[in-house]
Amino acid sequence: MHPIKRPLNLKRQSIYLLPNLFTLGALFAGFYAIVQAMNGHFEHSAVAIFVAMILDGLDGRVARLTHTQSPFGAEFDSLSDMVSFGVAPALIAYEWALKDFGKLGWMVAFIYCAGAALRLARFNTNIEVVDKRFFQGLPSPSAAALVAGLVWISIEHADDLSLIAGALPEIALFFTLFAGLTMVSNVKFWSFKEFHARKTVPFVALLVATLVLLIGASRPALVLFCFFIGYAASGYVYWAWQWTNRQKKVVKSDI
């Protein structure tokens, strides 16, 4: 007897395909960034990292909107993130500035790459037990934005940074190492998962948002880089605030 072949539900299959296409696009952007860095087109490679960030943010939202979350999609997303936000930024930083440091350069690039792998593995294993309001360690897309953003502004605003042009390799070394170590730290970063678009905000906040959008349209590299620097610093500010409060409680308990 031959098994009965049931017709495939093409609509269902196409819906499940949709979020994975965004993930595939993010993977392609990461691969494209590596190729462009190897060819010396560092501005293109940096922009490709930010494109990968946008696509990576869309795939999960599309999956939730269409109710097509799956273990396959989650695993595919992690593998894509490792390429786009782990391997690609490390290779871009190395080809752009770190190779001149010799062994130190590739060691720092590897620390970043390993940090991204460990960060993604920890995220996948702790996803059900951590506080949803915060990320444990700097998210890999934000870490990638620090490295790619530095490359982008150094090219886009080369004239404005002429005074520190000679120190850019050292700055790149610091940012790559900082991003790699912060990904595997226990520092907490706001996840933005409690942000509601329908919530009312003061009129001043709307004016500030409009101003940021106008500046961002004229200088996207600078605005994005400053935003992610602020985000990376916010975790340490929150950690310092928590530590200060704990010290105050200890002092009060001793009195």
Written overview of the protein:
- This protein has 255 residues and is mostly helical.
- It is 73% helix and 2% strand.
- The protein is built from eight helices and two strands.
- It has a two-stranded antiparallel ribbon with strand order 1-2.
- The longest helix has 35 residues, at 220-254.
- The termini are far apart.
- Residues 3-15 have low confidence and may be disordered.
What is this structure, in a nutshell?
This protein is mainly α and 255 residues long. It contains eight helices and two strands.
| Percent strand | under 5%
Distance between the termini: 85 Å
Q: Considering DSSP H and I runs of 4 or more, what fraction of the residues is helical?
A: over 70%
Shape estimate: globular
Spans where pLDDT lies below 50 across 5 or more residues: 3-15
Q: Count all strands and give the number.
A: 2
Summed over residues and divided by their number, the pLDDT gives a mean of: 84
Category by helix and strand content: mainly alpha
Spatial sequence of strands, sheet with the most strands = 1-2
The helix/strand series, from N terminus to C terminus, equals HHHHEHHEHH
The total count of helices amounts to: 8
From the alpha carbons, calculate the radius of gyration and give it in angstroms: 21 Å
